Amino acid sequence: MGTRRHARLSGVRALVGLFAATGLLAACAVAASPATAPTSSPGPSASTSARTLAAATPAPGTASVVTVAWGSIWDQVPSSFPLPSDAEPAQPADPVAGPSSGAFTTGLSVDEATQRIQAALTGAGWSLGATTSGEDGSREIPAVGASPGCRSLVTVRALGSVHFVSVYYGAGCPRP
Q1: Under 8 Å between Cβ of 63 and 176
Q2: Torsion over CA: 127, 109, 103, 131 (sign)
Q3: Are residues 20 and 53 in the same domain?
């Protein structure tokens, strides 16, 4: 019983640490954002908020390459990338996956989301590698696009009642 409690506490500590790291990363991203021009009024205005939001959200075609543990990826997913039909941008992103090309939530179970993503990828012309399962119940779907240099990794993971889909869209793929 003591070992089970210790494992559960270790898992909780790890999750708290990941959430803290995600918050720190978000704070760093905000601090690194370009400042907006001062307004004539002392308080924030709707236009200031819109400019700040536009600065924090990359415009289509302005994708850049970043390096993560998986490799070099685009910091965006193209709108044509096959995802479950109910996928919504995750806010905040999956704290376990870390930075990715895109993070989404779905109401589907991990198994059902994995099956639908596999079918959508093959339907869009991607070749699939062997899907692997993590100790946490997650699934990783490696895929190769039309050219051999275009590779992607999709991770489907449940954290509590939320199901995340994280996409690593390789830098060898066409610009999103």
Answers
A1: yes
A2: negative
A3: yes
> Quick one: which H or E segment has residue 25?
helix 2-32
Q: Are 129 and 75 in contact (CB under 8 A)?
A: no
Q: What pLDDT, in 10s, does the model give residues 147-171? A: 989 999 999 999 888 899 999 999 9
Confidence of residue 4 (pLDDT cuts 50, 70, 90): very low
Token couple for 132 = 């692997």
Mean pLDDT over 137-154 rounds to: 95
- Summarised one tens digit per residue, pLDDT across range 63-102 is 899 999 999 999 999 999 999 989 999 987 767 777 899 9
Q: pTM higher than 0.70 for the full model?
A: no
Amino acid at 45: S
Per the structure block, which two tokens stand in for 138? 């997650």
- The structural domain count of the chain equals 2
Task: Give the number of other Cβ atoms within 10 Å of residue 47's Cβ.
Answer: 10
Say if residue 128 is exposed, middle or buried (CB neighbours under 10 Å; 0-12, 13-18, 19+): middle
Q: Are residues 93 and 37 part of one domain?
A: no
- For residue 176, CA distances in Å to 12, 16, 99, 101 come to 36, 33, 17, 10
Residues 94, 100 contacting (CB under 8 angstroms): yes
Are 141 and 102 found together in one domain? yes
